[in-house]
Fold these 3 entries.
Entry 1:
Amino acid sequence: MKPKYCVVGSLNMDMITRVERFVRPGEAMQGISFAIFPGGKGGNQATALARLGAEVEMVGALGDDVLGRRYAELLDGQGIGRGGVSLEASISTGTAAIEVTAAGENSIVVVWGANGRVEPARIEAARPIIAGCSSMLLQLEIPLDSVLAAARMGAERGMTVILDPAPASDMPDELYSLCSVITPNETEARHLTGEDTSTEEGIARAARALLARGAKAAIVKAGGRGAYLARGR
């Protein structure tokens, strides 16, 4: 029997405009192209798992609008379970409006929308869905108390709890201790630990600092330099 994963987190529609340069205040400028893609850190995790052939359940929220209904169809098309995904009235689906320049720079405005409705009570309501999974993936694009509630639930059930601490944000000490694996990138590891992660030695110190805070394992992602793994005893 293959493992089953539960992703608790954000669902955004990414609206990407390609431009020669960033628009200036008060300026109207012709763009190069426009596209809409399903995103959100939670949705991206669920999609990656599904494409790898895993069985996945999603817990989150979408607005009861055209973007939310389209995202729900996309989840269905990938075979991602959405019994834990609600369609919320009177609020928009989460969005990310992204400008990408010809030089590859980007500017992003994120609106949480329905992601803000993923409250601890919703995590509790999804307990039967979560209980059927062996691993849980989390990020920080829903309310922090909900992330903590989900991590507690996963740890209580002996699940593998994997946290991508993005976007970079301060976290309570308890959350570290509930993580089987924490997976920051260099910037996030620097924010969480205060270590200079521009060197391999600094990355190693950051990873050890994450273990000292209670995480059972830490993977610091370092782009083209690869990743650094540290395990607790």
Entry 2:
Amino acid sequence: VLSRRITDGGKTELRRLGPISSVRAGCKWYEPPSFFIHAGDQIYYDFPDPDRAPGHRAYRLAYREAWFEDDALCHLLAHWPHYMTLDDHEIADQYARDFNPPTTDYSPGRYLRQSTTAYREYADALNPPERNGHAALNGEPLWFTFDKGAAHFFVMDTRTQRWNKKREVSERDQMRALLKWLTEHRNALKFVVTSVPFVAEINISAADITYDWYDPGRNSEQDK
């Protein structure tokens, strides 16, 4: 029986409105997503202990704690496609190939090797298995491309190839691939996914540097 509480002149009473004759499911309050993109920091390995030693078992534990102890996240990961890239907290805070580790007991290379072992098992395993025509195995790049409908996606790795002293976030192979991809899809809907923003700041000291991955002639009249 459906009832409603009525307030009249400061008096509250419960009135019977009548029996419930039928029940219908309401409209969905959201459209199911086609997929999710996780653009870095799936775990915070360095929190709350920034001096945590880099070990692949400890990295694996961080993924299990972050993913499998949260019922809502478990449901999300199990019911839709996911594409992932990594940022510093999957390795260490402010990681770069030449960063200063929080403890001098371990080198930057040790952090990278131990963390990417677990990253490939948990996060990268959700990404496309093929990279440039071959399987994504240990040692293969972490950047990749995929297509959804009419849209094209280039998911960059702007963390494991980063060098602070060189002021670089990507090595030449990835940049060549990105420029080739942009050229191939110049008239198509496309998205470049990165865990860090590209800041448009002119570096005067590097204005005359010629990068071997950059070919200014690629936009010649015959290519337009």
Entry 3:
Amino acid sequence: MSQDRTAAKSLFFEGVSHMESGDFPLAEACFREAVQTAPDFAEAYANIGFLLDKRGVLDEAEACFRRSIALNPKYFEVYLNLGALLLTRKRLEEAEVTYNKAMALNPHSPAVWSNLGMVYACAKREAQAEKCYRTAMALDEKYDKARFNLSYLLLRQGRFEEGWSVFESRDWYVSLTRYFACPRWRGESLLGKSILIGYEAGHGDMIQFCRYAAVLKARGASSVTLICHPALKTLFATLDAVDTLIAFDEEVPRSGWDFWTPPMSIPYYCNTRVDSVPADIPYLRARPDLAAKWELAMPARGVRVGLVWKGNPKFENDADRSIASLDLLKPLGAVPGVSLISLQKGAGEDEAIRPPEGMSITHVGSGIKSFEDTAAIVSNLDLVICVDTAVAHLAGALGKTCWVLLPEYITDWRWLSGRTDSLWYPRVMRLFRQSETGEWRTVISAVAAALEQFAQERASR
């Protein structure tokens, strides 16, 4: 082995050590020095690509992955990383080719089968996606990523029986499993028993699934405790079936109940199906005094329409679910007899404060301190028009008429496929779907036409 190669390997292993300790900048520096010393070092290029991908430098990451593969065409793991990057960039055909090359190297890898399934799912080739996921599960029955990916596909199709079952493979509530000392509820009789519902996922998920507190009470639970995000605590105080509320930033006992459960596992153990979704809405309410306070900030005339066009930019699919600019919603502002109210908090606030020329909008989002405020505002509206965010679930839970604008790409499972209504919020929710990825103008045109009819009907009353 040459002296240069020995030095490069030493730098490589030093970089690996820094990666394992979490010092990514120093790790990257080691790998870069390694490829300068030994330009044919495929593994070092692969690790540089991995680190660049993690921090979003995608063009350079892709170049490093491809350089690594050129140097070592049998380097299986790099195909997986490159395929994932291409999928992130929606280059589905290239991702499919990349994963098929990985498949040729290792056809018994559950990871490559599951990842290829994700490509097919994103391309709406759902039968092929399902076959890939099931192949991955057959290769390794403990490969939970494939089970989780399959759950989204099945739930989106309304195949709830198996969908809820494989959805149990999700891992984001593992910290609760380690924390609570009392038994986890798995469908046992609750007659005379106390149960704690933990929290998981985001605000919208908790708003959607807190309805199951009433289901557990109906099954005989003597008391129900609910843990929630701090911003939801005062709002959830209006839940009739909850006896005790605890925000997760407060002290939470490890035991004291007969059972505990993650909220999104309750549908599985309660056998929720498409025709038995518990949808007794409204199940949340706005505080009357707070609603009266926010009423003073509302336009005095016109049909009041609340708008939310952006979600949390940290959400994995936010670039697809959010509308890039308020300017695209100008057709809604042109509808006669309508007053637009912005509920944007954080992302989009700057646009609401300085709306596009010719567009009038009342911005109240900056004054929102918690979801209790948002509920009070929504209670004063005639209609909410929003993208797929927590506000959609809040409006539905309050029984407020709500129109949700959905992306074509990776539409969330809970809206199912092809429907214009919602099982979770019947009678009050209408879904407007993109027909092609990124094309909001057609959707907004349809919403504007529907809004004109809505305003005319309100005026005729």
